[in-house]
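pasting input
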Amino acid sequence: MRNILVIGSGQSSSSLITYLLNKSISENLHITVADVSLELAKSKVGNHENGTARSLDILNETERKETIKNADIVVSMLPAHLHINVAKDCVEFGKSMVTASYISNEMKALHVEAVEKNLVLMNEIGLDPGVDHMSAMKIIDEIREKGGKMLLFESFCGGLVAPESDDNLWNYKFTWNPRNVVLAGQGGAAKFLQEGTYKYIPYHKLFRRTEILKIDGYGKFEAYANRDSLKYKSIYGLDNILTLYRGTIRRVGFSRAWNVFIQLGMTDDSYTIENSEHMSYRDFTNSFLAYNPYDSVELKLGYYLKIDQDDIVWDKLTELDIFNGTKMVRLKNATPAQILEKILRDSWSLKENDKDMIVMQHLFGYELNGEKQQIESSMVCIGDNQTYTAMAKTVGLPVAIATLKILNGEITTPGVQMPISKEVYEPILKELEENGIVFHEKKGPYLGYNPERVTG
Amino acid sequence: MRNILVIGSGQSSSSLITYLLNKSISENLHITVADVSLELAKSKVGNHENGTARSLDILNETERKETIKNADIVVSMLPAHLHINVAKDCVEFGKSMVTASYISNEMKALHVEAVEKNLVLMNEIGLDPGVDHMSAMKIIDEIREKGGKMLLFESFCGGLVAPESDDNLWNYKFTWNPRNVVLAGQGGAAKFLQEGTYKYIPYHKLFRRTEILKIDGYGKFEAYANRDSLKYKSIYGLDNILTLYRGTIRRVGFSRAWNVFIQLGMTDDSYTIENSEHMSYRDFTNSFLAYNPYDSVELKLGYYLKIDQDDIVWDKLTELDIFNGTKMVRLKNATPAQILEKILRDSWSLKENDKDMIVMQHLFGYELNGEKQQIESSMVCIGDNQTYTAMAKTVGLPVAIATLKILNGEITTPGVQMPISKEVYEPILKELEENGIVFHEKKGPYLGYNPERVTG
């Protein structure tokens, strides 16, 4: 029996643990699921003969080291800042390790020692980062192998509600950490490259500069720019590329309405609102508007942000109850962002039978044999239910598959890694396909920007 | 001979040093002016028999302590973060001290020891903070002495160009640190109180929520909200006040045009622009606009920010050359804010014969004997020339007057102080009047907000 230790059994571990348990008999595995909540760990393992649930306080060094020492490989599904504790023990005891998080500087520092001990510390192998790396590098490598030259790379990803569960005006529900959705885009200007020109969008304009994308069978979507597009230049080896853009996907019309919250200042998490506990939702909205007791909150807001009286934005705002004078905030010393999150949770929480949806699309422009061409690669994944969500599947399955392949010696390159080499992405993408996570490719002429060269 | 040590002889020390030198014979004073630049110190002292210029490196402890030990009182006109070095030595050697800066936590920590040694550490006694404290507290105390109850306090201050030197479309020139002007309003939402309601304005809306004020003989001005209005509640003892607002004054129309820079993202100081050195001013502007090689930068900007073709904002932007394709940025790895500052310096630097202007206005609303009343108190100060600017006079004279009054035992309350008690503000305001810094008061019925109670 080979022992796989999975630390952290939150929502995104369901598909991961089930995959490993399903493989446990044929692959001769024992899966230990450790969580600070024994209850939660138990719920994921069930009664499976090859699974054990246990409680683990990750900050208890003795307990942690003891648990890791007994494993053959370790999966950390902890919050990102806690991986490093696990990683150091893994290196100490000679265990390989897998995470779905971005490589931190502390993690990077373990590279040399991991190589010396021939350990694989595989990171960024969830959905985003993860599936995005693998599906993008597969096509970029194909283009390069043929002698093509990359001109454009655009990549979009989003967690949304599935069409069959889409029943609000925003076409959006929380399928992931709501706090991150409220704060999305903050912390600095978005930077990207378009046809050789660097472009910068400040936060307060981010949701007014969306790009449109289409996915066969699912219609139109929009995307707002991520902060970090430029770093993919070096990661993917795209040093001379003309266009480089990464964005987050929403349904069309979401961003224009979301912009109202940004303009008002409701997404600010840097200060607390006086007396927030005893405010109504309407009071909260009014605190961002000019003082005038004889004008309505609605009219002041519409005038301030220049919203026409027949704009669909009104219906979206009203649906969220932000003008409701009787619903109370009931949060002590809360920031605007915390209050907005509470208001949105009322309307955007998934109902019991709701399903989520993950959408990813890449666009590759390149020149091959003197001809400019384009490949579009899209993936849509719908959740099965509230346990095996699209998010749990797309995050957890690549982690699970990588874990088993490292354990079985199919993925061997040692050190602190991310899944951008063929050795890693090829077998994993293949197995993801068998599990319903499929990219559809479309080839066509290169469009770039303003392909018809319209002027005038 | 009593020795006054003035450390720091930058632009705002001119009037201060001249005042002390003028008093030196009748008051039996010797003035030592110390600066890291001996040249600069000499230029301020001239050939005055009671003055000495010397060089001083404030971070050289031996030299600093030696210099302070020989003084009877010390004035620090250093950058704010350097005062604490001087203050600690002053307490050690038993010297009183005067600064024009906000009281830091480190400074506050010296209070008990200063009281024990009977030393006055007077701070916040320049213009703003300084003249604002004194002129406001004078009227607040008068209202309270009569038994009045404060309802409203609004206070505005700004450094502008004098009407006779006002020759650009923005009605603005740099009369103070340009970097602070570019960054003004950043770092958090502006908070204030209107008729009992807390109001919050995010940075990207700050310059679209201005208030209008009028000053007899000088016409209309506008003001945008300062970040910190609420802290004056406790400082001035205005705990139950309904309206509390502090703002920065500009000429009408400045803020609406300035908002263009904020919307574009040009005031951001948190990241550097790629290849900034070799950009034209036009390239810089274009980097915040959508990519399209067949549209003009002008049209893209006008469409993005919804600026009508006949809007005066176009003339203001064109006057600054932001669409100029031949003027080069020539700054390496510069932030947007640094580049914008350079562009503005081209147009907004004072010419040799230009004069500056300081404008301050307070509004006090109160209830006395069952009647609601209002006092408006305004001050305008015009600079004499580029040495004795309005800024140098309004910052330096209160510092100089306070220094002499502490030395002469007329201001005696020991500890870390600011000028909010009658003992301090009354004699200083009187002497400021003799030096042409005069507040004009106007009494009238209380207006508050929407005084006519118009509804409908």
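fyi Chain A has a mean pLDDT of 96.
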